[in-house]
Design a protein that fits this description.
alpha+beta; four-stranded antiparallel β-sheet; 6 helices; globular
Length: about 290
């Protein structure tokens, strides 16, 4: 859904600065420790967010991109490390989708891609390999979590020259006014000239078949948006490989990713009613 940040406070046991990465403008709190000792770092972020339903009525017909639009939306047409564009592994799926769509109209193709992903990928978390937002995994295993569903959508849409972007955040339960949030959620928006960005949530459509039409063109106000994009680099001091996606704390030492003990907790509480105001709190303890 749409959101507006009304207030934000950061409480940290060490000094740091809020910065933004250059490609998508994601903000992050950056801490540099010149001397690392046997101590715990604690960080709390409290944000007051006004949440609203985001709804777009997708057109039944559209046109291809102009040269100017292809240049403007090039970040949302390009591949990512785990999100290939135009890869041979996509060809059999694209053939099925084109047969279903009966043409190459971008609006028709977008809907056909959505329907194929919902019909052919299963939401489950079994074994290892799922949860990396890996199109190759989704094409072969045909199951995963929200990252896998939406990476496949990204690959197929971008291959058909439909700009699409990946977004991450946290789900807000609709049946409780306060509590703990167990984990992240992600979704996708694709762009058509007639409407702009169109929200979809293919993994929720799989889990809630009765809401399949709702999740094509609508994001309910049941989520808080944190970050956008893939293959992210958090500033000039981020020297190891880019982040596949950014939702949890990231640490480096001597230019290499540091696998330290990080405990996180995410909580929320409603400050209004219905589509209203919520306070989200993220806590991290790094040892």
């Amino acid at each position: 859904g749409q959101q507006r940040v009304l207030d934000e406070a950061i409480v940290s046991s060490v000094a740091g600065h809020v910065r933004s990465e250059s490609e998508f403008g994601n903000r992050f709190f950056h801490v540099r420790l010149d001397e690392v000792g046997p101590r715990e770092i604690e960080l709390t972020v409290r944000t007051v967010v006004e949440r609203r339903v985001s709804r777009v009525v997708p057109p039944v017909q559209s046109r291809g991109l102009t040269a100017e639009e292809r240049a403007r939306f090039s970040p949302f047409l390009a591949p990512n490390r785990r999100v290939p564009v135009g890869a041979p592994i996509l060809d059999p799926i694209r053939a099925e989708i084109r047969s279903r769509a009966g043409g190459e109209d971008p609006a028709v193709m977008a809907r056909a891609i959505y329907d194929w992903v919902v019909d052919n990928v299963e939401y489950k978390k079994v074994g290892t390999g799922w949860g990396n937002g890996d199109t190759f995994w989704a094409c072969t295993a045909r199951y995963g979590n929200c990252t896998d569903f939406h990476s496949l959508f990204l690959s197929l849409a971008r291959t058909e020259q439909i700009p699409a972007r990946f977004e991450m955040g946290f789900p807000i339960p609709e049946d409780r006014s306060a509590g703990r949030i167990a984990g992240y959620h992600c979704w996708v928006e694709f762009w058509l000239p007639e409407t702009g960005w169109v929200p979809i949530d293919a993994s929720e459509a799989f889990k809630r078949p009765e809401a399949r039409e709702l999740f094509y063109g609508t994001h309910p106000a049941d989520r808080v948006h944190f970050t956008r994009g893939r293959d992210l680099r958090l500033g000039a001091e981020h020297r190891d490989r880019p982040l596949n996606y950014f939702i949890y704390p990231y640490l480096e030492r001597d230019g290499k990713r540091l696998e330290a003990s990080v405990e996180t907790e995410f909580r929320y509480r409603e400050l209004g009613t219905g589509q209203g105001v919520s306070e989200a709190q993220a806590n991290a303890a790094i040892r």
